[in-house]
Structure formats: structure tokens, C-alpha cells
Write a structure and sequence with these properties.
Helix content is about 45%, strand content about 15%. Helix 16 links the parallel strand 13 and strand 14. Helix 9 runs antiparallel to helix 10, helix 11 crosses helix 12 and helix 12 packs antiparallel against helix 13.
């Protein structure tokens, strides 16, 4: 056996399907065995592999032991001369394995080999080649010097920016997304260090290979797509913590004395620094628009007060000073809180939600006005004029911001995308049917033939003229049919045309159209990214509001409910736990081995989706599926339904 391919999967079924199809093609000229280690996915990855890839050796774990442990499980069972650790969100070219193994055979000093990687928009991923994170290298990366001087050998040693992306090089660190390893080298230096749960294990193994007398190489004569590059993760505090903690483990393992202490100290400072930047960035993104709204509405009310005092009352001092420190904050606060709870800040260019929030706020102000002391009842006309100003100014602001970002004034409109499909007539029709079923709006321009055009009325052109088609018809999106177009051709065109176009790939006989460059999801039939509704900002807020409202109502009506709930003392305790944010009335059912099955994190729950079924005879797989569907299709109506049907368990203690 020449090659053992190992893929660790966790809840990326459709990416995995495409990766395995590309592996199947690449393995035709190389004696290959393939392992998939699934870390307890809930998205039907396991049955998909069993049904569609019977040649694959499947290891289905009951839990998620982490990346290193899962890879080691398969490495120990492998028989290949070479072992390839491959991410499930990758696509390899048809001759990738053949070229890489030939290179390794010609370089007996090679312990490992990495490869040129591009993301889903065709851009080169700098993590394809990396240097060891010494204290100075880590410092330059942490504090942004590597970005300021991307081609510097001194300041960007982490991503080896001074080395040509299109030439083969000896490097220090291999990327975990594609690590081709000599099995005899693994036998000598050891397998992946299982102290690393995620991140860092590739750096550690690369370092041990070099310490063991081997060389690591970057191979540019073949390319793979890696959909989820590092850049997609860095906005997360979890990423910051996991990545730098992995670096601390690496530093303590491989550095000694003062150098180790200095490195660990710097990495700890980096955690706080990066966490601060992430929090600050996320905070600014959330508050900058409300902050500007407060400013322009407040300024408007100030001038409207003076205008109306002079125009109507003929007295510039008609309104007391309390108007500025009481009425202006009150009016502005109610308007913007109404916009917030209407979802106007969840989608910053949604003018409908903005207008709805301001209208609701105006109605609330009119109601509140009658309860104010006479001293603070400025004038109803100022509320109306202020509402008009708030509407005009906030809409104008969003139109302006939209223009700065998109260079057009089509605020809130769904832009119809010009689409071409590259493939045979039959596959093109199948893809169009998938798009129709997914209810994706687009302007289908036509089909580009994978080879010569025999039917000019059917095809726009052949593949050689794809760039001309993109320019002539102003194409926004290209879908490649992998049955008809080689992975090599797909990647060459992605790199050639660049990120101005969104790219997707439809595997043979698959019901998924896969791509990561589009910011809009239209369902699993179109993109594999599962969008959990429970993780959406508006639904998070609505769920918390429902918890508070239900708790207050149950507290008021607790006496009649106490007659029906099973655990009366637990019921009263749960009301206050939910009210103070320690619990939620409805959520996932937990298991001893796993808490939330890889789903978005929410508060521990009192009731579960199964409570709506009024039965306890449910196995673990059904519980996982119910939790998955609850998160994916969440609405507050689902919570109300579960609470209504499972009210006898409102006193449940977990």
C-alpha cells in the first residue's frame, strides 16, 4: 500500500462528500486506502459515508476526542508507506497524490510535505507555508508586523512571505489541512501529540520531524481548495483562546529555561491582546451605528426644539433646560430601543425593520407622554417632528453607508446574480433543478461547455473562453459540475479570474452545491453551511425575552400552576433561575458523554424538545436529531409549544 488518506470529520457532511469524491479520482493511479474518522457528527455524515463510499474505512467515535486523537486512531490502523492527513473541507486535483508521492520518493530526506492551498474564492492561503513560531516570530504575528511587512524575511517568517508561492521550497511547518507524512518518519518521531485538542498539533509534529533529522517541503506543483481558511475563524474569542493556548503547550514542550518562560509570557500577553482586539472590534461593529443614530437624532431634536420655540411660540427660551437632559435622552432611547427590538440593528440596511421600530417607538412615546409630570411634557408636536427627523436622518445615514460599501443606492434590495454553469447540458439542467428547489434567485445566463462546443444554441462557449463570458455578461457566480470539469481546471480558473466572482462546485449525483465565498445562505441544497436559527442575533434576543416574560407570568400565576407541576419547590426555584439568566425554559437535552452535540451553545434548559412528544422512550440518536432540528429551525413558537405540552415538568431539576 502506497498511501493512506485520513480525514477527520465533524458535522461537515457535504464538504466531506466532495472531498471524498476528489480523493476517489486522485487515488486512481496510486495504491490508496482511505479512512474517515467521524467525531460524533449529528448531520448524517456517517450514513452518507457508508452509503456512498463503501471503499472507505469508517471509524465512528461516540464523542469528540479532538483532532490529534482521531488522526492517531487511523494512523495506527493504516498500512501505507505514506500517510496523508486531509481536512474534510478540501478538494484535491486528479493528479495531486501522484505528483506529491513522486516528489517524496525523489526526496528521501523529506519527512513531510505541504501543498499550495487556495480558498473558496481562489485566493492563495498564506498558511500553506509557515515557519516555526519562535518568540520573535510569534511577536511579529501577534502585533501585526507580519501584515505590515508581508514580504519581509525578518517580520513575516511565520507565513514565509518572502518565499515564492509558486515554487517548491523547504519549509519548517506543514499545514494540518494537508500533511503528507512518511510513515517511517512517524514511527521514528511519534504520532500527533494528543495533548493538543485542536490547533498546534501540526506545528508540534513538524518541529519533531525536523528535530528527527527530516526536512519539510512546500509543494507548489499541485493545488488544493481549502474552503475554511484561518481567516474565517479569527473573529472568534474561542479561536484566540484555543490557538494561543496550543502555542503555550508547544512552547512549554520544546523550549527550556528563560526562553520558554519568555515565550509563554509573551503568548499569554498575546491572548489578552488578541482577545481585547477581538472584543473591541466586535463591540465597535455592534455599537457604531446606534452611536451615530443617537448623535444625529439628538442634534436634530436640539435644533427642532429651537425652531418650534421661535416659529410657533415666538420665544427662543420657551422650552426649559430639562428638555435637553430629560426629554432628548428619553425620546432617543425609546426610538432606538424599539429599533433594536424590531431587528433594525441585526440587519443594518433593512429599512423596513428600521421604520417599523421608529413607528413603534413613536407610539410608545405618545403613551408615555401622558404619564409625565407637566414639567417634562414638552410638546406632542416635537415628538412627531422628532419622529420624522429620526426616520429621515437614519434612513439617509444607511443609504450613505450602503453607497460607501457597495457603490450603489439599492439599499435593502436582493441583488439578482448573473450565473453561468460550467458542465454538460444534462448536469446543467440538474443543477438548475437543485437551485430551483432551494428557491435561490438568480439570472441564469447560460451554460459553458467543458470542452468543444458542438451545439452553439445550447452553450455560450467552451471552457477556454470562460473569462470572456465573465466579462461580457458581468457574471457574479460560476457553478462548476465536477462530473464534467476536472478539479485542476476548476482551480486554475478560480485563481485566474480571482475573487470578483463567487465559485461553487456541484459533485456528481450530489444534492449539494458547495461554496464558501457567498455571504448568503439559501438552504442546504445550495450551500452546505448549516445556519442554526437559534444562533441568529434576533432569535437569541427573542428567546431571552420569552424566558423573562414567561418567568414573570409564571410567578404571577404560580398558585394554579403548583397544582399541576410534578416538583413544586423545583418550579419556584426554576422561575428565579430563568429570570436571572442561569437557565432557559427550553433547550437541548443533555447526555453524560456530550453536552450539546456540537450545536450552538445556549443556557442549560428545564424542558427539552422531547417534552412536546410526551414520551420518555427515545434513544440517544433521536435525542441528537431533536436537538439538531430544534437549533436549526428555532422559533419562539417552538418554545411556547414545548412549554405548553410539557408544563408538568416545569419543576424539573437538572
Amino acid at each position: 500500500m502506497k498511501l493512506s488518506v485520513i480525514i477527520v470529520n465533524y458535522n461537515v457532511q457535504y464538504f466531506l462528500e466532495q472531498a471524498l469524491l476528489s480523493v476517489r479520482k486522485a487515488a486512481r493511479k496510486v495504491s490508496t486506502e482511505v479512512f474517515v474518522v467521524d467525531n460524533n457528527s449529528v448531520d448524517d455524515s456517517v450514513p452518507m459515508v457508508r452509503d456512498k463510499f463503501p471503499e472507505v474505512t469508517l471509524i465512528a467515535n461516540d464523542g469528540n476526542p479532538g483532532f490529534a486523537i482521531a488522526n492517531n486512531q487511523a494512523i495506527r490502523a493504516s498500512k501505507g508507506e505514506y500517510v496523508l492527513l486531509l481536512n474534510p473541507d478540501t478538494v484535491v486535483e486528479e493528479d495531486t497524490f501522484e505528483k506529491c508521492i513522486q516528489f517524496m520518493d525523489e526526496h528521501p530526506d523529506a519527512g513531510g510535505l505541504g501543498i499550495k492551498m487556495i480558498d473558496g474564492s481562489g485566493k492563495f492561503l498564506p498558511e500553506s507555508k509557515r515557519g516555526f513560531p519562535s518568540p520573535f516570530v510569534a511577536f511579529c504575528k501577534t502585533f501585526g508586523l507580519s501584515k505590515i511587512f508581508p514580504k519581509s524575511k525578518t517580520f513575516n517568517h511565520y507565513h514565509l512571505g518572502y518565499l515564492d508561492d509558486d515554487k517548491n521550497h523547504e519549509v519548517e511547518v506543514l499545514a494540518g489541512a494537508f500533511m503528507l507524512l512518511r510513515k517511517s518518519a512517524l514511527d521514528k518521531v511519534g504520532l500527533l501529540d494528543e495533548a493538543f485538542f485542536m490547533y498546534g498539533e501540526d506545528i508540534d509534529l513538524s518541529y519533531r520531524l525536523v528535530k528527527g533529522g527530516y526536512k519539510n517541503y512546500y509543494f507548489a506543483d499541485s493545488t488544493i481548495i481549502h474552503y475554511k481558511g484561518e481567516s474565517t475563524k479569527k473573529g472568534s474569542l474561542n479561536y484566540v483562546r484555543a490557538f494561543y493556548n496550543a502555542m503555550i503547550i508547544f512552547a512549554r514542550k520544546h523550549f527550556k529555561g528563560e526562553q520558554a518562560s519568555l515565550f509563554v509570557l509573551m503568548l499569554k500577553l498575546a491572548i489578552y491582546f488578541r482577545a481585547f482586539l477581538t472584543l473591541a472590534s466586535n463591540f465597535v461593529k455592534k455599537v457604531y451605528l446606534p452611536f451615530i443614530d443617537v448623535f444625529i437624532i439628538g442634534i436634530g431634536l436640539y435644533f427642532l426644539k429651537d425652531f418650534w420655540a421661535v416659529y410657533y411660540f415666538k420665544n427662543p427660551d420657551y422650552y426649559p433646560s430639562s428638555f435637553l437632559y430629560f426629554n432628548v435622552p428619553l425620546y432617543t432611547g425609546i426610538w432606538l430601543l424599539s429599533v433594536y427590538f424590531s431587528g433594525g440593528y441585526d440587519e443594518e440596511y433593512n429599512l423596513r425593520k428600521l421604520s417599523r421600530g421608529l413607528m413603534i417607538g413613536t407610539v410608545l412615546l405618545a403613551a408615555v407622554y401622558g404619564f409625565l409630570d407637566m414639567e417634562y411634557r414638552s410638546s406632542r408636536i416635537l415628538i412627531l417632528l422628532g419622529a420624522l427627523w429620526a426616520l429621515i436622518s437614519t434612513i439617509t445615514l444607511r443609504v450613505f453607508l450602503h453607497f460607501l460599501k457597495y457603490k450603489n443606492f439599492q439599499v435593502g434590495r436582493e441583488h439578482t446574480r448573473n450565473l453561468v454553469i460550467v458542465g454538460s447540458k444534462e448536469e446543467s439542467n440538474r443543477v438548475l433543478n437543485l437551485i430551483h428547489r432551494a428557491q435561490v434567485q438568480n439570472n441564469f445566463i447560460g451554460t459553458v461547455a467543458p470542452s468543444g462546443v458542438d451545439e452553439p444554441k445550447v452553450y455560450l462557449s467552451d471552457l477556454r473562453q470562460l473569462d470572456e463570458v465573465v466579462n461580457i455578461y458581468k457574471i457574479n457566480e460560476i457553478i462548476f459540475c465536477s462530473q464534467d470539469v476536472s478539479s485542476q481546471d476548476i482551480m486554475e480558473w478560480m485563481s485566474s479570474i480571482g475573487p470578483k466572482v463567487d465559485y461553487k462546485i456541484v459533485p456528481k449525483e450530489s444534492i449539494s452545491i458547495i461554496g464558501s465565498s457567498s455571504k448568503n445562505s439559501a438552504g442546504e441544497l445550495y450551500t452546505i453551511d448549516v445556519k442554526y436559527q437559534i444562533d441568529q442575533t434576533g432569535n437569541k434576543r427573542n428567546k431571552r425575552l420569552l424566558d423573562i416574560s414567561a418567568s414573570v407570568l409564571l410567578l404571577i400565576l404560580c398558585v394554579p400552576f403548583l397544582l399541576f407541576v410534578k416538583n413544586k419547590s423545583g418550579f419556584l426555584k426554576n422561575i428565579f433561575l430563568v429570570l436571572f439568566g442561569k437557565r432557559s425554559w427550553v433547550g437541548y437535552q443533555k447526555n453524560n458523554k456530550e453536552e450539546q452535540f456540537g450545536l450552538p451553545k445556549i443556557k442549560a434548559a428545564i424542558l427539552y424538545p422531547k417534552d412536546a412528544l410526551r414520551t420518555d422512550k427515545i434513544n440517544l440518536e433521536t435525542v441528537k436529531r431533536l436537538n439538531f432540528l430544534y437549533a436549526k429551525d428555532y422559533t419562539t413558537g417552538n418554545d411556547l409549544d414545548i412549554m405548553a405540552k410539557g408544563f408538568r415538568n416545569l419543576g424539573r431539576q437538572n
